[in-house]
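Contributing new complexes? Match this layout with D-glutamic acid.
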Amino acid sequence: MNINSSISSMPIAVFDSGFGGLTVLKQLLQLLPNENYIYLGDNINIPYGDKSEEEIINLTSKMVEFLISKKCKIIIIACNTISACAYNILKQKYDIPIIEVISNGVADALNKTKNNNISVMATEFTVHSNVYKNKINKHNKESKITQISCKELCPMIENDWYSYDNRLDVLKNYLKNIDDKSDTLILACTHYPHIIDDIKKTLEYNVKNSIKNIIDPAYHTSMSVKEYLEKNNLINTDKTNDITIYTTASVEKEEKIINIFMPKDRKYKLEQIKL
Ligand code: DGL
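Output block (do not edit by hand):
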């Protein structure tokens, strides 16, 4: 067995502060169905979007060390907040390929917008970091970017979105801030694609909106992972394809979310861990 073939059967690691990164895992499963995966959600410490930079870096380093201890071949930061806060630090600190979601979301948005007027929904941390705005303006300084900080969404999605009777009102309140001329909306928190149907419904309600493209950075991120693995000859060729989901909260809660949001034709091993 050569070195590459033993690395290729190692899992792809995906992590997030909670359930959001499952939207990225879902895309990866479609694009790379024969890979082994490990997923880690720090559900006990969510939301990260309200935390300080120092807190996010501390929690994230523990997660990355856990994933490395599981002998993964690549790590995907399936969280915009962590990507905004810690990607550069993690890249410097750890000697393992790491892919983040933000530059992938930006690339997809820039490909699709026709008028360079883009709105971005994200956590407080991601909005205040201005990372989307800066990255888009680096490509085109004329682009008009409207950033909307959606503080309540991530905790509501994590705590069973459909149990909130006021959920569409909460969404309306945020989405009314989209620039009337934006043709592209980036879902810059990996939790938001879980509620894409309600987002679409709410956009339709606002007759003034001109959104033509809704960007889920998970799609472009998965494409980047595939390209990286192909280029480095690291695609798994073994028959095993395991998916293990680790959570710092309860396995029961994770199981419920998986039943709602994840493909039913796959088997998921669930394990609670302490970081
Ligand atoms: N899914 C995370 C993101 O993409 C949620 C952040 C949070 O924990 O607040 O930003």
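Reviewers usually confirm one structural detail per submission. For this one: The beta strands are 12-16, 37-41, 74-77, 98-100, 117-122, 144-149, 184-187, 213-215, 243-247, 269-272.
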